Structures are given as structure tokens and as C-alpha cells.
Amino acid sequence: MWRRLSILLVALVTGLPVTFADITVTDDAGQVLRLPAPARRIVSLAPHATELLFAAGAGAQVVGVSDYSDYPPAARQLPRIGGATLDMERIAALHPDLIVAWPDGMSALQLQQLRKLQHPVYLSAPRRLDDIPAALERMAVLSAAPEQARQTAASLRRELQQLRQAHGTHRDKVRVFYQIWDKPLLTLNGQHIVSDAITTCGGENIFAQLPALTPSVSLENVLQTNPDAIISPDHNHQPAPWLAEWKRWPHLTAVQKNHLFSISADLINRPGPRMIEGTLALCKLLNQARRIENPFSINHD
Predict the structure, then answer these.
(1) I need a labelling partner for 296 at 20 to 30 A (CA). Which of 11, 33, 71, 91 fits?
(2) How far apart are CA 287 and CA 200, in angstroms?
């Protein structure tokens, strides 16, 4: 991968023409994607994918984004191609040479319709925090944006290592119920990247063993499991309204100790570069549950 990027850098310095063989990358679904040349017109169908592309140095090549792509600020100025419902005609009209899609956020029918447009589709679905810098590097290969991606990926890996060294070995595991919705009561299993963040912070996802990625659980399940902390992503930058509802069950450990926590959805739910910052925020919450007064902070080089 880096050999191709090195060739590009040499060409940029010397002014020599660049000739690429097909660019070959394997996406998060295991499909092999081949491009005849670096992508120059990219459509991003998920906020985290937009953030990855900009962080990789490919922001100038992005020509369309999903409705909720609001970071970095430059992404807000780009054409919108829909949210939960994608505008296939608008996507086609942008003439993309690469579409980056999030399989967890679209139906099988939508993905089928997307493929019918006959543009290359890269499926982005990081499952572990380590997948984020790796995804950033793959975006750089697809768009020929090498040096910024190399530096950013290395920085993210250093920050992850620091977090794990500071928090991953805690003997005092905080048992966490991560609630993403109330009706139905929804959580995340151990295959979700947020669960990896919980583990990184020395926590334990109480529903990690469930088979579905975003399983529905009963109130009785939560009451019986009795988590040490209940954490929910915020809504419109306000604490999720259902967090306060747990006070109806004062025998819960999380309620008794006032461990009902809200966390930024933009930082923790998007598997992009800022999720490392979101993981630090999560670690601070778990330290609060442990009553650690001086939580670790990342050293930025």
C-alpha cells in the first residue's frame, strides 16, 4: 500500500507523470474493490465516512454527502444526497467514481439499488477502534492522499495505545448498560465498536454476548443484570430524555450511585477519527464511576 503512496510523492516532487495500475483495496465487508485510477469524485453516504475522507486528505475529492454529515465544517457546504432514504438519481447525477457506504445504516434493498448505479461501492463499517486508522489509510489509497493519512493514522494509534495503557488494565471493571433507544429498549452487543470502547476504558458491556449487533432487551433484563452505570448518547446535544426514567427503579446500582451518564453521540457513535476523543470522554465517565478524581488525558504530539 505505502509503495504506491511513495511513488505518488516522488512524482509530485519531480514533476514526472504518474501511472497507476489498478488500485485494489478490501473493504470492511471483505469485498475486493478495484479502481482504474485514484478516485476524484467521491460520494459519502455516512457521517463517519465523510470524517474519514477529510481526515485522510481527500476532502477536495468529496462531491456529495449524506444529510447528517456535519463535520468537518467544510462538509456542510457539499451537496446532500439524502439520509435514511437515499436519492439515487441525485447520486447518479454527481457522476461519482467512488461511493463510500455504511452497510449498518442502510437496507439490503438500498444497497442493491446503489449497486445498480454501477459505480464502485466501498462498504465502511469499523468494528474495533484499531479499524479506524486502518480505514483512514485505505481511504488514502483509494484517493491517493498519502502523507496526511499516514501522519493522522500514526497519531490515532498512539492515542489508542495511551488509552489502553491507562485504562484497559483496571481491575475494577465498571459494568455498563449502553442504551441507544427506549421504545424498544435497544443496546449494543460485543461486536459493536462502542463495546470495544467500553472495554478499552476498563468497562464491561453487560449485553456483549447477545447475537444481534443492536439487540432489543427487556426492562427485566436490565433490572436483573443491575449495571454499575447506564450510558446513553445525547440527542441534539442534550441528555437523552429516557436517562431520568431510570430513577423509577431506585434499587439499581447505577441509580443509587447517580451513574446515569450522557455522552456526545457525534463523538462516540461515529466510527471515525473523533471516536478516539469520544473514547477518552467515555473513560472519564467510567473513572467517575470508580471515583477516580484525576482521569487520564491524551498527550497530543
Answers:
(1) 71
(2) 12
DSSP 120-182: -EEE----STTHHHHHHHHHHHHHT-HHHHHHHHHHHHHHHHHHHHHHTT-SSPEEEEE-SBT
- Cα 171 to Cα 117, 146, 175, 199: the distances in Å are 52, 40, 12, 12
Task: Identify whether the C-beta of residue 300 lies closer than 8 Å to the C-beta of residue 156.
Answer: no
b/e burial code for range 239-251 (CB count within 10 A of at least 16 → b):
ebebbeebeeeee
Measured torsion, CA atoms of residues 265, 266, 269, 270, in degrees rounded to the nearest 10: 170
Q: Partners of 24 in the beta sheet?
A: 34
Q: Count CB atoms within 10 A of the CB of residue 223.
A: 13
Q: Cell for 190? A: 460485543
Q: Are 236 and 223 in contact (CB under 8 A)?
A: no
Task: Give residue-wise pLDDT tens across range 241-298.
Answer: 999 999 999 999 999 999 999 999 999 999 999 999 999 999 999 999 998 544 444 4
- C-alpha cell, 215: 439487540
Q: How far apart are CA 241 and CA 298, in angstroms?
A: 31
pLDDT tens across 214-256, in order? 999 999 999 999 999 999 999 878 899 999 999 999 999 999 9
C-alpha distances in Å from residue 214, one per residue of 44, 185, 291: 23, 10, 30
What number of helices (H) and strands (E) belong to the chain?
11, 10
Domains and CATH numbers, the chain: 2-151 (3.40.50.1980), 171-290 (3.40.50.1980)
The answer to whether residues 64 and 94 touch, using CB atoms and an 8 Å cutoff, is yes
Specify the DSSP element, H or E, that contains 261.
strand 260-263
Integer Cα distance of 288 and 65 in angstroms: 37
What cell numbers appear for 91 in the block?
A: 447520486
CA–CA gap between residue 149 and residue 155 (Å, rounded): 10
